[in-house]
Amino acid sequence: MSKGHQFRKTTSKTSRKKEASEQNEVEGKFDTGKRSYSLGLIRVCLEETSETVVCLQFLVMNLEQKLKELLHHIFTE
Q1: How many whole angstroms separate alpha carbon 59 and alpha carbon 53?
Q2: Which of 6, 29, 30, 75 shows its CA 20 to 30 Å from the CA of 21?
Q3: Measured over all CA atoms, what is the biggest interatomic distance in the chain, rounded to whole angstroms?
Q4: CA atoms of 39 and 18, how far apart (whole Å)
Q5: How far is residue 59 from each of residues 34, 41, 51, 77, measured CA to CA in Å?
Q6: Using 50, 70 and 90 to split pLDDT, how confident is the model at 23?
Q7: Rounded distance between C-alpha atoms, residue 11 and residue 52, angstroms
Q8: Contact status, residue 8 vs residue 15, Cβ threshold 8 Å
Q9: Residue 58, Cβ neighbours under 10 Å: how many?
Q10: How far is CA 53 from CA 41, 47, 49, 61, in A?
């Protein structure tokens, strides 16, 4: 019975560590957005509009990254 309890504890600790890692990655992206893309300057009144603006900004960030990868692939051949 104590082994099962230890396993659950380990799983819980492992899942907490994974969640913390994912959270750090997401927060890092927000920091990059704030510094590089002026994400911290977004000032809109409606919550829905704010969410849309933030989503579009992250879309631009992802597209820029993919463009860099594509150009790197094209010019390194």
Answers
A1: 10
A2: 6
A3: 60
A4: 26
A5: 14, 17, 12, 28
A6: confident
A7: 36
A8: no
A9: 15
A10: 11, 10, 6, 12
Structure tokens that stand for 17 in this block: 């560590």
Give residue for tokens 């969410």.
51
Tokens 């900004």, located at residue: 57
pTM of the predicted structure, to 2 decimals: 0.49
Distance, CA of 54 to CA of 46 (rounded, Å): 12
Give me 26's structure tokens.
């997401």
Residue 8, amino acid = R
Would you say 29 and 61 are in contact if contact means Cβ atoms under 8 Å apart? yes
Q: What SS3 state is found at 56?
A: helix
Residue labelled with tokens 């051949």: 77
